[in-house]
Design goal:
Blueprint (H helix, E strand, L loop, with lengths): L13 H16 L3 E5 L4 H7 L3 E7 L3 E7 L2
Length: about 70
């Protein structure tokens, strides 16, 4: 899956509301969440939402892989 928020509606809380729904579902189902990003500006946002970098891969660009335990 590729998820994102359209640039014209970013910084309005839509992404945060969406990720909180995903986190709630992962807690309910007792499943960890894994995601990846190559967009450096996303990293602090994921970390604020409880995700930790578990690996970084150099593909000619940095791909950061995250995990959030339920």
């Amino acid at each position: 899956w590729f998820l994102g928020v359209k640039p014209e509606v970013q910084h309005q809380g839509k992404g945060s509301a969406f990720i909180q729904q995903i986190i709630a579902k992962s807690i309910q189902e007792q499943k960890d969440i894994y995601l990846e990003t190559s967009t450096l500006t996303n990293i602090p946002w994921y970390q604020r939402n409880g995700f930790n970098i578990i690996q970084e891969i150099d593909l000619g660009y940095k791909l950061s892989i995250f995990k959030r335990k339920f």
